[in-house]
Amino acid sequence: MAMNKNTVLAWATTIMIIVGLGLIALGAFRYDDVAGWGFAAVGIGFFAIAWVFNALKGRV
């Protein structure tokens, strides 16, 4: 299986969505104080970067 640039961006998007979901889950279920808000904010940031990677597919 050849890994071209679109495949790499697709894998990066998938991995970042999984990590983002994990961070949001940590913020929601593990930490009840202010740290939970930080984990959730970073998870949303991961979603934003994954969205950019998804938008770059086919254009790079």
From TrEMBL:
Entry's transmembrane regions: 7-29, 35-56
Domain of life: Bacteria
Keywords: Membrane, Transmembrane, Transmembrane helix
InterPro entries per UniProt: CAL67264-like
Name by which UniProt lists this protein: DUF2207 domain-containing protein
Organism: Olleya aquimaris
